[in-house]
Amino acid sequence: MLLFSDKVFLRKLISLLFSFALMIGIILICTAILSRVTILSPSYLTAQMERSGYLVSVEEKIESDFISYGMSSGFDEEFFQNSGIYENIKEDVHSEIGKMFAPLASGPDYAQLHDDLYNKLVSHIEQQEVQITEEIDEAVKYLVELFQTAYAKEISFPLAGILGGLIESARMIMVVFIILGIALIIMPIVVIAKLNPGSRGKSTFPYWFYPLSGAALFFAFLSALISISGMIERIVILDKGFYTFVTMYANGILELMMLFAAILGLIAAVLSINYRRKLRADV
Q1: Residue 1: predicted pLDDT
Q2: Which of these three, 101, 127, 155, is where a domain ends?
């Protein structure tokens, strides 16, 4: 037969084990939320693109390609700068990103781009009072094909095919995290409350404080470790614009991890202050 002291020890041990499970549940739920607003969010990705200047670098590359091809074919630089063919670059890049998160989504309308380029080039030639012969028409069509190929290459997101598959897998993993997280939060709360009734919550304080502070330390330590190690800055990417985007994208996730750590730490601190007030009130 268990003595009273043995029962108390067993109750505390079980409560600590469920408290640890509660910490895991908090970490899983926070990880799922963090993933939902970052790696699983197209708006986060496009926002980081604009902040990092990646879209500007894409526009500059496309403009450089167009002017290079055009001038080699007898078109002046001013025509390409004022032609308006760069107006949809941002929208088309966002469409390419959308396909990563929703494979069935429609991408950029390259057929429309082809027709617009062809019509603008033909119109420009006619304005120069040059007759459109079959030979010139074939040359214009070939030039349009070059433009379209260069345009599609520049607005396409690097490794989009691979990342699209990873995003879909991440979605499934996060669903599992949410289910496990909810179970590991609800069950420990119920069990700990039943094992430690009364005392105005003072007896259960450690079992709420430890999971919250432990989860806060987990995110703080992980984000600090990644930041101090410099592994993000050491990523090898030759394209300067894409490198800036990737580092800013990753650092944005680290900042949110630190924010999660701060929020969890703040909740733990509030619980601690409330606990001490109750102790002083009982003295």
Answers
A1: 46
A2: 155
